[in-house]
Write a structure and sequence with these properties.
Elements (H helix, E strand, L loop, with lengths): L3 E3 L16 E5 L7 H9 L8 E7 L6 H12 L12 H8 L4 E3 L5 E3 H5 L4 H9 L1 H8 L3 E3 L7 H4 L6 E4 L5 E4 L1 H4 L2 H8 L9
Parallel strand pairs: 2-4, 5-6
Antiparallel strand pairs: 1-6, 2-3, 7-8
């Protein structure tokens, strides 16, 4: 996705696959990709399942013609509008490939709101103080700005120390203490090098 920033080598993402059928993406919902989620899928006849976020996806298309085949079958049967998994690509992929889904590790990739935004600014500062968190964040290869109300090009123009809340009540603190080196990386990544340095 265009709202996903790449800061390091991404070829290692293929190492997260267990086999050629594995599909690796961000974990999106409370129910994690797991044996438990697969059991829930079976018990509910596919009505409940672990979902991912498709801002960054690792898979081998040649092994997944089933994704398109099932989609066309659902569409041809006139079930498209009534079938909830087709509400988005990530829901649909998570549903079709439920037996093969794997979550991206947060040592490699994170969703910006989940990683950097808390329900109170103090918690954002507290998390940023943890040495193991700072170390992990420095080595991130992928950060996706999914679910942010502000587009990346507007986000990077914010005045330092600006606080913004999202629809879930999470607070963004736009400064280098909370975000570490990410703030300046985002400014550079989205072509805002001419923004005054802070």
């Amino acid at each position: 996705d265009l709202d996903t920033a790449i800061f390091g080598p991404i070829e290692q993402a293929f190492d997260f696959q267990k086999d050629e059928k594995s599909i690796v993406m961000f974990q999106s919902a409370i129910l994690p990709f797991s044996a438990f989620a697969r059991m829930i899928f079976r018990l509910t006849n596919g009505k409940r399942y672990a979902r991912g976020n498709s801002s960054f996806v690792v898979f081998h298309p040649k092994h997944w013609s089933e994704i398109a085949d099932k989609f066309l079958a659902i569409y041809d049967a006139g079930e498209f509008r009534k079938f909830r998994p087709t509400i988005s690509d990530e829901r649909y992929i998570s549903w079709v490939a439920h037996d093969h889904m794997i979550a991206l590790p947060n040592s490699f990739a994170v969703k910006f709101p989940t990683e950097y935004m808390q329900h109170h600014a103090i918690l954002s500062y507290a998390k940023a103080c943890l040495p193991w968190v700072r170390h992990r964040r420095e080595k991130l290869s992928v950060v996706t700005l999914c679910s942010l109300e502000l587009k990346p090009e507007k986000l990077v123009c914010l005045t330092p120390n600006t606080h913004i809340s999202d629809s879930k009540g999470r607070v963004l603190v736009w400064n280098d203490f909370v975000l570490g080196g990410l703030r300046k990386k985002l400014i550079q990544y989205y072509g805002q090098d001419d923004i005054k340095k802070a």
